[in-house]
Amino acid sequence: ALSPWDLRQAARHILGKPLEPLQRGSTTPRADTLRVMTYNVHGCWGMDGRMSMERIARVIARHQPDVVALQEVDEGRTRSQGVDQSAVLAKMLGMHEFHCVEKNHLREQSGIAVLSRYPMQLLAKRRLPGDPDIYDMSARVAMWVSIQAPTRTVNLLNTHLSIWAPRAAEQACALMTEDCLKGTAFKQNAVVCGDMNAAPKSPVCRQFTSAFHDAQLRHAGAAPRMTWFGRYPFRRIDHIFVSEDLAVKAVDVPGTELEKLASDHLPLIVDLDVQSTR
Q: In sequence order, what are the residues at sequence separation of 6 or more whose Cβ sits closer than 8 angstroms to the Cβ of residue 266?
């Protein structure tokens, strides 16, 4: 089947115009800004019931993030034809990639990933408390990476917490222990992001805001935006938290037809000031 992107490219070819690159506009790194996106891609299955990694890549490319924290990326799953989705997306976007997967109740693998335009180092991966059961069919994981941005090294944690609130609270508590987010590496230049499956005032988010700032609240430019569900988002469960020294320059939750179709979540994008300190 041909996608709209295929048809667009074919039309440009017939008209003698150059094909459009996936990365649109300037891709020059912004030395004073780090653009972070967190995005639950739902296994690249859209609201139209169709799987398209290209569509997810287009969503990411149009906003030109420096770092992307992905959740629900498949690897070796039947529903995704056995594809390593994070590796494919990284190749399509020309970004570095690390991923962390766990098996679900069907013994198939799904998990999280971090893509970066800058070099990065994998610091750690961790299995979170709770095994797949009737309350939550998926194992949950977290991963830490160090991003070598031009003016700062930024430590980033990506995770996807349980859909069952008591377990999600337990997992957030585990992440906030001394050897994780309260460690020296996350005292400054730190970003915590992911699908927390929890509202801002929940016990889960209160765990994180005890040490970090909610990026949507730290930016005074607009009211916080909802990220889930699909075409009619009514909950804010995808979050980016930042350390005290990182100022938030801009926040966006894009909701064009493409974003509303590509996944059941909308991406959350935050521009961080990585030049000044506060």
A: 225, 226, 227, 228, 233, 238, 253, 254, 255, 259, 260
